[in-house]
């Protein structure tokens, strides 16, 4: 075979492995293929593999024997660098956390390499012998790698249809669980090279490849089981929070009912005085009475009724419960809370409900903690539009906030170790394409806006 054919075959097989890896990583994340990122990754992966191959060849020319240890180390380095490149491109293309995409890329590398090993052994076991070397290379090299891409595509399709990413993403709700998931995935990826180090005399065959295929199934099953358990625990905690929020909502209704009863009692006494004024023909007194009564009504019941109207316009029940709980907290702290939701807020939003609750919860908690000790005010506005949901949280303040400092990661005015809220908020917003946030000062209020596209 000519040198050009040999080099072309190596480049082709390397490219197919890169394609399989990217397809699997995207499938694990539940994302569609981003073609620009795929093209960049294809070129980078080819470069990494050619550099690794060149170093190996150079070492053999320099007299270094390429033993099993050297080959395994080269494989591990190549796998790791390729997975890091894939993770960076996926994180940038889909605006996902690096830890999340890195775990998916490492797991995708393990699955792609194992599937390729299985395909190679199957073809070598059952392919007939040929004298023509070009045809032999096609059967024993081209076909296994093409089958590897097909298997990767089918695996990614199955994971996307089964919504595997929902369970996989549950492992990254906390940093500890996320790092543990990455370590498990990396251990799986290192299994084949490490086994070659431990038992270099093992000859790869169909049984060898089948073992690793079973390892894929077991590994994915354990990951999904752990993710389902984690998601179940998160769901239980979310239900407990919902119950507490519902109790806060009921407390608001009871408080409004008591205010209505008190107003009815007061209004009866006031109306008695109005009757006497009417009998005496005191028109000025009646007008003054109406003015005082209107002011009294707004003071006693106006804000509560406005809040109830706003809450009733929120069709997304978890969001309604969260706002009811925060408004109840404001009343306990004697902070004036104002809610405006003039149009119905739809149940379906482009942002995941859990992320929406976390984002709004961070803004509300920051606003409540930042108001002055006296005459604190927090204003919440939700506006449902055809193009998406607009929400804003505004609060008054004693000391003017430092807006440039707020943009820095970890900045806080609450003390050491408590500056993670806004960083978490920014990470949540960055996950969703088209989401836009803005922070500014206006009329003595610190305003934070968020626009979520439809």
From TrEMBL:
<dbReference type="InterPro" id="IPR003594">
    <property type="entry name" value="HATPase_dom"/>
</dbReference>
<feature type="transmembrane region" description="Helical">
    <location>
        <begin position="211"/>
        <end position="231"/>
    </location>
</feature>
<dbReference type="InterPro" id="IPR036890">
    <property type="entry name" value="HATPase_C_sf"/>
</dbReference>
<dbReference type="GO" id="GO:0016301">
    <property type="term" value="F:kinase activity"/>
</dbReference>
<keyword id="KW-0812">Transmembrane</keyword>
<feature type="domain" description="Histidine kinase/HSP90-like ATPase">
    <location>
        <begin position="351"/>
        <end position="454"/>
    </location>
</feature>
<dbReference type="Pfam" id="PF14501">
    <property type="entry name" value="HATPase_c_5"/>
</dbReference>
<keyword id="KW-0808">Transferase</keyword>
<dbReference type="GO" id="GO:0042802">
    <property type="term" value="F:identical protein binding"/>
</dbReference>
<protein>
    <submittedName>
        <fullName>Sensor histidine kinase</fullName>
    </submittedName>
</protein>
<feature type="transmembrane region" description="Helical">
    <location>
        <begin position="98"/>
        <end position="115"/>
    </location>
</feature>
<dbReference type="InterPro" id="IPR032834">
    <property type="entry name" value="NatK-like_C"/>
</dbReference>
<feature type="transmembrane region" description="Helical">
    <location>
        <begin position="6"/>
        <end position="28"/>
    </location>
</feature>
<keyword id="KW-0472">Membrane</keyword>
<feature type="transmembrane region" description="Helical">
    <location>
        <begin position="179"/>
        <end position="199"/>
    </location>
</feature>
<keyword id="KW-1133">Transmembrane helix</keyword>
<feature type="transmembrane region" description="Helical">
    <location>
        <begin position="68"/>
        <end position="91"/>
    </location>
</feature>
<feature type="transmembrane region" description="Helical">
    <location>
        <begin position="40"/>
        <end position="62"/>
    </location>
</feature>
<keyword id="KW-0418">Kinase</keyword>
<feature type="transmembrane region" description="Helical">
    <location>
        <begin position="135"/>
        <end position="158"/>
    </location>
</feature>
């Amino acid at each position: 075979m000519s040198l050009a054919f040999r080099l072309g075959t190596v480049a082709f097989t390397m490219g197919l492995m890169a394609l399989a890896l990217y397809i699997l990583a995207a499938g694990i994340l539940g994302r569609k293929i981003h073609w620009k990122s795929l093209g960049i990754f294809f070129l980078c992966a080819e470069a990494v593999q050619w550099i690794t191959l060149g170093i190996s060849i150079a070492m053999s020319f320099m007299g270094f024997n390429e033993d099993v240890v050297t080959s395994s180390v080269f494989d591990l380095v190549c796998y790791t660098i390729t997975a890091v490149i894939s993770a960076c491109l996926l994180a940038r293309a889909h605006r996902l956390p690096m830890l999340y995409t890195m775990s998916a890329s490492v797991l995708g590398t393990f699955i792609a390499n194992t599937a390729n090993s299985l395909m190679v052994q199957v073809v070598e076991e059952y392919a007939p012998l040929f004298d023509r070397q070009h045809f032999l290379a096609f059967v024993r090299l081209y076909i296994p790698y093409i089958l590897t891409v097909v298997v990767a595509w089918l695996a990614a399709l199955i994971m996307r249809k089964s919504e595997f990413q929902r369970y996989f993403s549950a492992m990254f709700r906390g940093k500890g669980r996320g790092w543990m998931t990455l370590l498990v995935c990396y251990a799986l990826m290192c299994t084949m090279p490490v086994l070659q180090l431990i038992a270099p005399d093992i000859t790869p065959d169909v049984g060898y490849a089948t073992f690793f295929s079973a390892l894929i199934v077991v590994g994915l099953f354990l990951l999904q089981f752990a993710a389902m358990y984690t998601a179940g625990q998160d769901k239980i905690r979310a239900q407990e929070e919902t119950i507490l929020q519902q109790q806060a909502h009921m407390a608001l209704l009871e408080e409004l009912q008591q205010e209505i009863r008190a107003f009815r009692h007061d209004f009866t006494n006031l109306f008695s005085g109005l009757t006497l004024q009417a009998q005496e023909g005191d028109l000025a007194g009646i007008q003054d009475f109406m003015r005082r009564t209107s002011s009294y009504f707004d003071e006693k019941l106006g804000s509560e009724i406005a809040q109830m109207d706003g809450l009733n316009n929120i069709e997304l029940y978890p969001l309604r419960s969260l706002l009811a709980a925060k408004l109840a907290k404001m009343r306990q702290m004697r902070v004036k809370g104002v809610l405006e939701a003039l149009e119905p807020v739809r149940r379906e939003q482009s942002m995941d409900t859990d992320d929406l609750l976390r984002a709004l919860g961070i803004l509300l908690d920051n606003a409540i903690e930042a108001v002055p000790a006296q005459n604190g005010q927090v204003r919440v506005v939700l506006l449902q539009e055809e193009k998406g949901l607009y929400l804003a949280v505004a609060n008054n303040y004693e000391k003017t906030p430092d807006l440039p400092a707020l943009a820095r990661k970890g900045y806080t005015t609450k003390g050491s170790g408590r500056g993670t809220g806004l960083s978490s908020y920014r990470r949540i917003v960055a996950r969703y394409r088209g989401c836009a946030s803005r922070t500014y000062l206006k009329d003595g209020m610190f305003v934070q806006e968020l626009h979520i596209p439809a």
